[in-house]
Amino acid sequence: MPTEIDPPPNDQRSEPATQAVSTSEPVLMNHSHHAHTGSGASMHDEHGITFWIGLALGLGIVGFGVRGALHQFTTYSQRFVFAKYAIGFDLLHDVVIAPIAFVVGFVVSRLTPSKFRAPIAFGMFATAILIGIGWYPLQGSAKYKNNVSFQSLNYARSLAIVLLVVWTISGIWAVRNATRKPSSGSSLQKATR
Amino acid sequence: MNIESLWNRVPQPPKVGPFRPGAFSSRLHDERTAAVLGIALGASFLTCFATGLYSHELQHPASWFSAFPRPVGLFRLTQGIHIATGLASIPLLFAKLWTVFPKLFTWPPFKSVAQAAERVFLLPLIGGALFLLFSGLNNINGRYPYGQFNFVDGHYWAAWITIGSLVVHIGAKISTTRTALRRDHTPHLATETTNAFDPTVPTNVNPLRPSPLTRRTFFGVAFGTSGLVTIFTVGQTFAPLRKLALLAPRRTDIGPQGFPINGKAEEVGLQTVDLATYRLKVHGRGIAPIEFTYQDLLAMTPHTAELPIACVEGWSSSQVWTGVSLRTVLQHAAARPNAAVGVAAMVAAPTSQHPHPGRGSYGRSEISAAVASDADCLLAMKVNGEALHPDHGFPLRLIAPNRPGVLQTKWINEIVVR
Q: Domain-by-domain residue ranges, chain A?
């Protein structure tokens, strides 16, 4: 578990995620400019021979999968539901989950001192993922009703223990950041790590 | 019409919100971050795919595939890895999607036919990946909300479509990834765009800015969460960590006789079986039909073996089973050596509770010649020295090496020589 964070000097307050570049960051500006000049080449390389080989191979595998799915799902409603799930997850992520994550991240970054952002980000991310995984056991399943070996734990308690572990790690990380002396290394150097 | 004139005719999105230059300026959206997470996800999805294909072939073998009995615990290992890597991929996938999310707002969305093709395949790649993880998580928790199709078919064909899209993505990104991972590479945003028609002219002045979260810290968050997911679930198959399996739907040590079950005897009306009337029927190609009583089976040379029972849902448990080798029974029935066989579960007598009893979903299974002739392919009557619990298949169940749990047929009373 990494414990290193990179508090910008004199910045104990949060800053907006979309803050414009300040003039105190010339190195990164240079990096960025450098990157721009290399970006075109990178984009060009993306569609070289490996892309076309990958496209041909991938198209064949996707075609096999689509053909198999069409063969398996013979009715319109089956195909519709299958497609709905695949496309629905794209939309669910892009329209709901990601914007919520960005908004929450933005709000947290505004409200917390920079030295606590990393442990809080870890705590919130791990909490969201672990609740997602623990959600079904918490709800139970009708399929294995009366099966003593299935979802046999007290999952509310389990989840509470798991989240306690997560936030304990997060808390130790935060305390360590709070009590650590400022690093002598340049934050700009660390930015590329 | 060329692409230049196409984009000239399309109104550009207003430069507000996510379309505003500099809207996503954190270095955590850069190519190196995307590359590292992409490699980890590529490895985990390809591992899931390979282990999933093996599981599928064992359950629905193609004509060219024949199951093999050794190593005894191979399926336990591959399916344990399948479920564990699938679960561990969940945080990695969300971290990767977060990193590349700004690409959604790149304008113009494509600059060449090749890039358009690349981006089209992102739809089945992302949707398929999310569906695979969602449906897998549902399956291990016994939930099937799809209505119109069953889990196995949907998961299987979605896996092919997703992996094909992943191959396209790898082909498109392998060069960028190699460049991004070079030590001398200067970081720039995965979202950074150049002028559509002159790549030397930047259109999106979007420099990186320092952030309290270094890239290394971000990886720590993503991989650390992935590690926690593994720690809190892998105990359903890895016994030493069973007490930490707080979020797993199963524990290796909880169930009748100290290990889990899926199907219960009461579901097929077989809570009690009268041994006085029980008969194991053996018939099929090249043999005269023959029946064995339970006493006949007890009189045959017993065989004991420690074998895992490994469920496709990811849990597994190793137990000491005692019974008679299937090949011994086949020898008593004068079946030819190395015959493939089918086994079937008994059907309970109709009762008021079960007016139309059946064998259940997994009441039949096929056994390849290689597995059937293995000494450890058992018709088990005992586990850990005790008579089988009805939920474990009393009076007779199959327990064979390197075989999915759903094919370890319980309550057997029929063998068909193929």
A: 30-72, 75-111, 113-185
